[in-house]
Design a protein that fits this description.
- By secondary structure, the protein is of the alpha/beta class.
- It has 2 domains: about 110 residues, Rossmann fold; about 120 residues, Rossmann fold, CATH 3.40.50.620.
- The protein has 7 helices and 12 strands.
- A 3-stranded parallel β-sheet has the order 1-2-5, with helices on one face. Strands 6-7-10 form a 3-stranded antiparallel β-sheet.
- The longest helix is centred in the N-terminal third of the chain and has 16 residues.
- It binds glutamic acid.
- The site of glutamic acid has 7 residues, from loops.
- Glutamic acid binds next to loops.
Length: about 270
């Protein structure tokens, strides 16, 4: 099997040092495997994403020497794949999950879930709120709908089942459905496919064999493995890069503008050192 990797920035801000590390690692692993690297701009949430950030991301990637190998050819450079161009494909994936009975329409918002009473034994106060299983409708709910409509569609997780996978960097991983995460949104009521659905759908469509991304997405990987299963697709290999932290020990976010690649390059940091 030939290795196919991807880098998948979301253009809601400038790339920072954490992105650079993850993407450089993705490029390195791909080169070492003599594979093909794809750039995918994850702009499916068109309200939050901006073309100027997508353009800036490509410029910054090139300036630190990260190139990609595929995409529509525009005069010797490759155009990236753009998630927002594939809405009808995501809709097909929604339909497949719906027909499989894996997802259901739901009126509960993120706020409702956050305000739901916690299980008394919930040890970790900071843990993400779990969708209460008693709110879950009976099996088959929504299967007759032909469009997502203005519902949140949630994935029905197998309560109590451990989702295990091997991470090429972090080692063996284990998350328990219904404890570490609950029924999660795959399609938003504002008509946008949620990250978990869009990313799995695109990784399948692009034939990605290894996903390299930040360790903040380890738990998402467990959710995504459930989506692969519901779609009858084989998951790729996983490699989650350690996160870059700021001087306060917090992970870098798009707000960390001082550590954006642009700012670092403008301050004279050498692109080779970056
Ligand atoms: N687009 C996501 C982000 O920028 C990464 C998704 C992924 O690599 O799976 O955080």
């Amino acid at each position: 099997m030939t290795y196919r990797g991807r880098i998948a920035p979301t253009p809601t801000g400038l790339l920072h040092l954490g992105h650079a590390r993850t993407f450089a690692l993705a490029a390195k692993r791909c080169r070492e495997a003599a594979g093909t690297l794809v750039l995918r701009i994850e702009d499916i949430d068109t309200q939050r994403c901006k073309k100027e950030f997508a353009d800036a991301a490509m410029e910054d990637l090139r300036s630190i020497g990260i190139c990609w190998d595929e995409g529509p050819d525009v005069g010797g450079a490759f155009e990236p794949y753009v998630q927002s161009g594939n809405f009808s494909y995501f809709l097909k994936v929604w339909e497949k999950l719906k027909n499989a009975g894996a997802i259901y329409p739901c009126r509960r918002s993120r706020k409702d879930v956050a305000a739901a009473p916690r299980a008394p034994h919930a040890e970790d106060e900071a843990a993400e709120p779990i969708f209460p299983p008693q709110w879950r409708p009976p099996a088959g709910t929504g299967i007759d709908l032909s469009e997502p409509g203005d519902y949140n569609w949630r994935f029905r997780v197998p309560d109590g089942e451990a989702v295990e996978f091997f991470d090429e960097i972090q080692g063996p991983q284990r998350f328990v459905a219904g404890e570490d995460f609950g029924d999660f949104v795959v399609w938003r009521r504002d008509g946008v496919p949620a990250y978990e659905l869009a990313v799995v759908a695109d990784d399948i469509r692009m034939g990605i064999t290894e996903v390299v991304r930040g360790a903040d997405l380890l738990k998402s990987t467990a959710r995504q493995i459930l989506i692969y299963r519901a779609l009858g697709a084989t998951p790729p290999a996983w490699a989650h890069a350690p996160l870059v932290l700021d001087e306060n020990g917090r992970r870098l976010a798009k707000r960390s503008d001082a550590l954006s690649l642009r700012a670092l390059l403008a301050r004279g940091e050498l692109s080779s050192e970056l």
